[in-house]
Design brief:
This protein is an alpha/beta fold. Helices cover about 35% and strands about 15% of the residues. A seven-stranded parallel sheet has the order 3-2-1-4-5-6-10, sandwiched between helices. A two-stranded parallel sheet has the order 7-9. The protein has a two-stranded antiparallel sheet with strand order 8-11. Helix 6 packs across helix 10.
Length: about 325
Amino acid sequence: MSPLKHLPIRVVIPGGNGQVGNLLARHFHAQGDSVVVLARRPITAPWRSVPWDGLHLGEWVKELNDVDVLINLTGRNVNCRYNTKNRQEIMESRVHSTRLLGEALNEVAHPPRLWMNASTATIYRHALDRPMDEYTGEIGGNEPNAPSSWRFSIQVAMQWENAFFAARTANTRKIALRSAVTMNPDPGGIFDVLLRLVRFGIGGASGSGEQYVSWIHDQDFVRAIDHLIANEQMADCINLAGPNPLPNCEFMRALRNAYGQKIGLPATESMLELGAIFLRTETELMLKSRRVIPGKLLESGFQFTFPDWPSAARDLVNRRSKMNR
């Protein structure tokens, strides 16, 4: 039996110029779909890029008419120090753009059949004891074994999802993408940063190394998005994460093994805090335990190409190596 032919769809991606947006745009474009990226600073690409500011209705609204899928990825990068200005920008860039898209969908005659809005797996509590799926996962913010400064990320995620589900879109299926970190070999991404640490022999455990790392391989990420588009019964909050999160110490060991690096100096929490100040980031990104599993994806029959981190790390290292040749 010959494989089913892919029927082209129309996809609009607000905030699609980042790592994940480029990953999705390349994927959809490669399979013959029509792709439009809404961006504050449009770039030259094989797909169309249309300007928008994420704050006001404008000419870009017409791009939402008669499309199949809207995937909103808009939001200021969280890899920064959480001072007052950055906190405001992180929150408002997500909540305001989501509300704006909800308003825009009521302006078009034929709104998208599916609206997927970025969220984050960070919404779950600091979890060392058990995994968090969509059914039994506990929203964080009040756990006694986590710093109070981590509550901000939870507040952002909750307000982001509240704005999304509050939008009146009777004819549009909605999915909040509670995604773990997407690992891909492109320069400048989180995997690139981690691999650089390993290369220099400082890719050991962070802090105690007991905190769990949730992740998803880039190929499984785009396959999961295709799966969600095709399965019309899937809605609400969906975890996008590999099925086997693992402690930070094991995560980094597997990455060192994939790269062939025997040395991996650990970093204490005080060292991480000093480094975070120097690099203008937050230690929460390294120390919070994210033990997230994709309950709904697995329940729906989705099969991961890279279900475990060691095999995913080997593939990513090999692909990154080829890019450097």
